[in-house]
Amino acid sequence: MGGLAAAAALRKQGADVTVYEQARQFARIGAGIQIGCNAMHVLRGLGLEPVLRAQTFYPRSWNNRHWQSGEVLFDMVFGAPAEQKYGAPYLLAHRGDLHAALAGAVPDEVIRLDHRLVGLDQTKDGVRLAFAGGETAEADALIGADGVNSIVRSTLFGDSEPSFTGRIAYRTTYPARLLEGFDIGDCTKWWGEDRHIVMYPVKADRSEVYFVTSQPDPDYSPESWSETGDVEVVRAAFEGFHPDVQRVLAACPAVHKRVLVDHDPLPRWVEGRVALLGDACHPMTPYMAQGAAMAIEDAAILSRCLAEVAQPGGARDGIAPALARYQATRHERTARMQLTSRQNSWGKGVTDTDWVYGYNAWTAPLAG
Ligand SMILES: Cc1cc2nc3c(=O)[nH]c(=O)nc-3n(C[C@H](O)[C@H](O)[C@H](O)COP(=O)(O)OP(=O)(O)OC[C@H]3O[C@@H](n4cnc5c(N)ncnc54)[C@H](O)[C@@H]3O)c2cc1C
């Protein structure tokens, strides 16, 4: 997502971009994604607001409730009041719909699927890329938006694998009709003692619903890892939770799972004409629903920093300073997000949300 957002934003500045993606095709995995007002500012600038408003759910709030009693711990109000306050809506999407919208902002011919980067070299005036299968390419600059296990990061800065949190997330989307009329509400996080579950609709008409858990996985080992989850394991893990939770889990046909990882803020993300973006440089736990939002904000700031040099004929020796400025602009905010998210306290009690949702990457000051 960060790579596509960066490509779309850089093209707006006149840059000639190519997106290299290892996957043979884009798959629609069953997962939801919260699109914060801050991410929506950027997506609006990329022309995606109408399509996203049409395809996503517009929640009244993100309600935080006690796992057993259902007592409301903090109702984080969105809807019209947040839109007015922060200048952009808060939307709940199917991840595939957000991804498709971003892919639609970039012409097909600049996306090269089935291209797995295996190596890179900085030359005097650019970067040489090597792909599995032997193909190579040259570029004036490289943006490594290759996720938590970034090969660009390990090539530039050595291995710094994200650490396993000891927890995993089960998640799924499924048709709301399986709930037989039960209303799951707008967006609810049910806070247990050592686990939680978040649930919301992902379509404007509430026809599809999503949930995601975070729970300890003492039996996890990399060898036994599989992406397919067992829905009975999830039901057992949330036994005793409020009846609304039981209802959603009882109706769920299947789940998949993934490990939850975390990383301390990295000191550097840029080396010469190569920069990292999104999870490649600031992976975080999903507890503020801000990982993709940070990648999308990165894209807008990056495009602003590169604006002068991105145009045809722009002075290429300005690339490295522009990338350094991008990192300087983004580092403090993304580090704060990583460290705050890690605490898993966002919304558990009264929470100041302004610094997160009130940020507009198109107008925020750039580092000097
Ligand atoms: C359970 C869960 C829930 C979440 N919920 C939210 C949420 O509600 N809101 C939110 O904002 N964020 C959320 N996030 C975080 C969000 O998913 C990530 O922060 C976001 O996907 C990061 O985007 P990215 O583009 O940096 O990386 P990725 O989405 O990981 O994309 C990296 C891309 O690079 C490709 N790639 C990797 N290596 C190579 C290579 N060598 N060559 C070529 N291509 C390569 C991959 O195939 C992939 O397409 C959640 C995360 C989790 C785990």
Please describe what this structure looks like.
The chain is of the alpha+beta class and 368 residues long. The chain has helices at 2-12, 37-45, 49-55, 79-86, 95-104, 151-157, 231-237, 243-251, 291-305, 307-310, 319-342, 354-357; strands spanning 19-20, 32-35, 61-66, 72-77, 91-94, 111-112, 117-123, 126-131, 136-139, 142-144, 163-175, 188-191, 196-201, 208-216, 228-229, 255-262, 270-271, 274-276. The strands form 5 sheets. The chain has an 8-stranded mixed sheet. Strands 7-8-9 form a 3-stranded antiparallel sheet, with helices on one face. Strands 10-18-17 form a 3-stranded mixed sheet, with helices on both faces. The mean pLDDT is 95. It binds flavin-adenine dinucleotide. Flavin-adenine dinucleotide is lined by residues 1-3, 20-23, 33-34, 115-117, 145-147, 151, 169, 171, 212, 258, 278-280, 286, 289-293, 295.
Identify the notable features of this structure and list them briefly.
368 residues, alpha+beta, eight-stranded mixed β-sheet, three-stranded antiparallel β-sheet, 18 strands, globular, binds flavin-adenine dinucleotide
